[in-house]
Amino acid sequence: MVKRKIRTAAVRSLILCIVLCGCGVSRNSEVIVIGHEGQENAQLSGNLSEGLGQGALAADTSAEAFGGLEQTAEAEIRVYVCGAVKEPGVVSLPVGSRAEDALLAAGGFAENAWRDHVNLAERVEDGQKLYFPTLEEADSLVMLEAADGRVNINTADVFALCTLPGIGESRAKDIIAYREANGAFESCEDIMKVPGIKTSVYSKISDMIRVE
After folding, report:
1. Of 40, 61, 135, 156, whose CA is between 20 and 30 Å from 119?
2. How many Cβ atoms are within 10 Å of 63's Cβ, its own excluded?
3. What confidence tens digit (pLDDT) does each residue in 185-198 have?
4. What is the longest distance spanned by two Cα atoms in the chain?
């Protein structure tokens, strides 16, 4: 009988430790030990289900917080700022930002920047290339805008070609090299004969180019 009492007390202590320390159940939980035919059975009651419910609530809250982080990431756009700026490169901006915000993120105007060309109040979009010309490029740009606003791919220099979306300095040089080797373009579609200029690029610039 004495050994049985000692064994029962030990079982009670073990179960109490598991409940209070290992399972995260409140101290108000009730532990019932019933002796039957030499076997001891343990039953947990009280706040166990409540503790599990609180754990599920915490998981839901964590999920909501994670979703909030995803929404925050999606609320940013990336803009490539280049030309006459102090720190050219890709900048991250909040959705709804303007060209002025992109300029400031790139360190502001360089000393040789033509400051009146870009509309700083214009909104920028994700993936946009924002080019700030130099004073030396001003004359070429003025001549371009004096026409109908479209780039003549048979006479345009590297700078004028770089104003087209998807056309960088390397691709602009390819266009000039192609027309020097093969003669003037006969139609706007002929620009797709230049290596690296596919239908996807042409669809972006078709309304912005002309031939003469």
Report:
1. 156
2. 10
3. 999 999 999 998 99
4. 112
